[in-house]
Design brief:
The complex is a heterodimer. Chain A is mainly alpha-helical. Chain A contains 26 helices and 2 strands. Chain A has 4 domains: about 120 residues, no CATH class; about 100 residues; about 130 residues, no CATH class; about 100 residues, no CATH class. Chain A is globular. The two termini of chain B are about 30 Å apart.
Chain lengths: ~525, ~120
């Protein structure tokens, strides 16, 4: 630590002061000085870790009702940026990292941001604190901070009594019952031993995945739209990449929140009952079910997820399992339902926001199924399908505004076909930047039809997504697309590309400014 | 073969029932006051509708209004255009003249069909 440049100290201070522009500039400067990216990222996570906890994700209002409290997204930004950076390589790899550090100082102390007691993007954009009544010493809410961020969960000691199996069981129950200190202490004790890590990762992912609202329809605060699963996976991935021995601040960032209110296990109970009643062999079904779906069966599954009620969706998943369909076939059909919705149905930018979370949640479940062997995994197929169906149903409550209608991409197909292939990707990047979904899809369709090349197309989509600042959702959706494209088993995997393009060019963004992108260009022009 | 014929007869019976249902709605709409039509449209608001499935059929109702009572659309539009656009803006836009023009362009009556094509949901 002692031989680190002074910039590290400045970086910590700037992060804690929500001074995001300077923090990002310092970070990029240190990268240019060839400081290891891994050290810089971990240093940034270390600095933020004590200040990303919320006492609850339910905040009581003066009238006695509650409102939801947003989940920490700093760790989600880091996970996406690291995954994307590794795939991009070269100079472009620094763009997602610049976005992650640009965002991180804006995402501290979410609880206090909602109260207009600390600056950041929630206080500035979501709560509009600058235009609300606030204490005279507070503000502006774009930072830098006038007060230090608060710690809402003190770090604690590992708990090591009992066998590892017993401790994993206790930890899982403590998550479900909201005993945060106990679950965190048990986790720390288990994570300390390399031989327990696979089991403890599996248990943490399981805890995140099964904590999911049964519906968003008229639920307001009592939902989490998959954030516990997303954050659990982010922690596991970064710890795997950087090494578990130096990942304490990652654990501190993520684990205490898994037991934070609200804890939502109604859907878990439903899936457990359904599986217990129908599949005595549920623990081994993953290996026994190997059949793919026919094209017609894929269409049926898509139709039910798009238009059915939740009971129909759950019954349909049971039917597919009874037919012997593989887990991959079912999860891929669920993803295709999402793609169909995004490409052909939904138009309003706001209406893409929640579905995007279901998409990323599906990716977490799929990576859990692909990399672990947990007897409860069959139940997660119900979770995925129910979540995708539910976000679509919840959107259906709201009228389709004709002012938000999207011109059919076909109107621009001739224009798209007029681009030489090497220039088409440039035009695609520009169309996404201009938030023009019609031209974006026309260009993607033209490309897909004219060439079998996909990697450059995917890279362009991911790079374009990385242009948008203050919003880890955009990069997260893009890396999900990339990961799911690689593993997809049906003939329709190009639909993932079309959905990724439509999302990038249409979903509501927290900002359309390009200041972080400009910083990236200035910092790494000659890298 | 018998099964195919039975299925086709069922389809025809459903089509007839649907036509009668649409006739009944159109007739009720024509006889309703503006106030009643406003209340009907309001019943599709998220907080007032019985389910997302009910709310989602607002598009179909507005199509039916444009087809059935086009002359009354300006007054319905005026009611919702005066309200908070955050809550009612989308509905006001659905009732605006531009939406009516678009609906007129989209109407499709295949040769030999009794009535214009109907989207169910």
């Amino acid at each position: 630590m002692t031989d680190r440049p002074a910039g590290y100290g400045a970086l910590s201070e700037q992060i804690l002061a929500a001074d995001y522009r300077n923090a990002a500039s310092t970070f990029c400067g240190l990268v240019r000085e060839e400081q290891p990216v891994r050290d810089l990222v971990m240093h940034s996570i270390d600095a933020a870790a004590p200040f990303v906890q919320s006492p609850s994700h339910l905040m009581q209002k003066p009238d006695g009702t509650v409102r939801g409290v947003n989940y920490d997204h700093t760790i989600l930004g880091w996970r996406s940026s690291l995954k994307i950076a590794r795939r991009m390589g070269g100079r472009a790899a620094y763009l997602p990292l610049t976005q992650a550090i640009w965002y991180a100082p804006q995402g501290l102390s979410v609880w206090d941001q909602l109260l207009c007691d600390f600056p950041g993007h929630y206080a500035r954009d979501q709560e509009q604190c600058d235009s609300r009544e606030h204490p005279p010493e507070a503000g502006p809410f774009d930072g830098p901070a006038w007060t230090p961020p608060r710690v809402y969960f003190e770090d604690t000691e590992p708990v090591t009594d009992g066998t590892p199996e017993d401790r994993i069981q206790r930890m899982t129950l403590a998550f479900m019952e909201g005993r945060r200190e106990e679950s965190y202490g048990l986790f720390l004790g288990l994570a300390d031993k390399p031989e327990h890590r696979q089991a403890v990762k599996d248990a943490v992912l399981f805890a995140g995945i099964i904590d999911l609202q049964d519906t968003l329809v008229d639920r307001a605060a009592y939902q989490n739209i998959g954030h516990k699963a997303l954050r659990a996976r982010a922690m596991c991935d970064i710890a795997d990449d950087f090494g578990w021995d130096n990942a304490h601040s990652l654990f501190y960032t993520v684990i205490p929140d898994l037991g934070t209110a609200p804890r939502l296990h109604a859907l878990w109970s439903t899936a457990t009952n359904l599986v217990n009643m129908q599949f005595p062999n549920s623990a081994t079904l993953k290996h026994e079910n190997t059949a793919p779906m026919t094209e017609r069966q894929i269409d049926e599954t898509i139709d039910i997820i798009l238009w059915g009620l939740q009971g129909e969706v759950l019954a349909h998943i049971s039917q597919r399992l009874r037919e012997g369909k593989s887990f991959a076939a079912i999860t891929d059909a669920t993803l295709l339902a999402y793609c169909k919705y995004v490409v052909d149905v939904v138009e309003h930018p706001n209406a893409l926001f929640t579905p995007g979370h279901a998409w990323d949640y599906c990716n977490v479940v799929n990576s859990w199924i692909r990399n672990y062997d947990n007897p409860h995994q069959v139940k997660s197929l119900y979770f995925q399908a129910a979540f995708v169906n539910d976000v679509i149903r919840a959107n259906r409550q709201f009228p389709q505004d004709p002012a938000m209608a999207i011109e059919p991409p076909g109107h621009y197909r001739e224009w798209a076909d007029g681009h030489a292939l090497d220039m088409l990707l440039v035009a695609l990047d520009q169309a996404i930047l201009a938030q023009d979904p019609s031209r974006t899809i026309a260009l993607v369709d033209s490309y897909l039809q004219r060439t079998g090349e996909r990697q450059q197309l995917l890279s362009t989509l991911v790079f374009s997504a990385c242009r948008f600042q203050n919003d880890p959702h955009v990069q997260r959706h893009a890396i999900t697309a990339l990961e799911e494209y690689e593993h997809h088993t049906t003939s329709r995997r190009d639909e993932i590309i079309r959905a990724a393009a439509r999302y990038a060019s249409r979903c509501i963004k927290r900002s359309l400014e390009m200041k972080a992108f400009d910083l990236y260009q200035r910092s790494f022009e000659d890298a | 073969m018998d099964r195919l014929i039975a299925a086709w007869r069922l389809r025809n019976a459903c089509a007839m029932a649907l036509e009668q249902a649409i006739d009944a709605v159109e007739s009720a709409v024509c006889e309703a006051s503006d106030q009643e039509l406003v209340a009907l449209i309001e019943s599709f608001a998220p907080a007032r509708s019985s389910s997302p499935e009910y709310a989602a059929t607002l598009d179909r109702l507005v199509e039916l209004l444009w087809d059935t009572v086009p002359g009354r659309m300006p007054s319905l539009h005026a009611v919702f255009a005066e309200r908070n656009p955050r809550q009612w803006g989308a509905i006001a836009n659905m009732l605006a003249p531009a939406a009516g023009t678009r609906r007129e362009q989209q109407r499709f009556q295949p040769p030999g069909a009794r009535r214009p094509a109907v989207v169910l949901r």
